[in-house]
Amino acid sequence: MTEKELDILFDQAFENANLVPKESVPPNVQLVLYSLYKHATSSRLSSLNQSFEQNDLGEELINAFKLNALMQVKHLSINEAKQQYIDIINGLMKERNIKP
Question: What pLDDT tens digit does each residue of the chain (100 aa) get?
Fold first, then answer.
């Protein structure tokens, strides 16, 4: 598959993600999708070192989980992250019998 074809499929998967009810996706899968998307769309790994806004303890905890999720995918290439994102979204849609 060419990079252009992968980009098209990735963009379609991103659009299809909006069809999957958020409440039907477990929080750990939401974090994986978040980290794969951020990694796939970042042009530099320095985005992993971004500072997260810290308003209260709840937000600090959420940001810690997000940062942890980002660290877990940093070893992937951008194309690998895109492919994994596509696979997860397509799997969620298939499990829920959602048609694009």
Answer: 899 999 999 999 999 999 999 999 999 999 999 999 999 998 644 444 454 455 566 788 888 888 889 999 999 999 999 999 999 999 999 999 999 8
97 sits in the region (left: phi over 0; alpha: psi -120 to 50; else beta) called: left
pTM: 0.80
Tokens of 6: 């992968």
Residue 36, C-beta contacts closer than 8 angstroms, at least 6 positions apart: 73, 76, 81, 82, 84, 85, 88
Tokens of residue 76, six digits: 């992937």
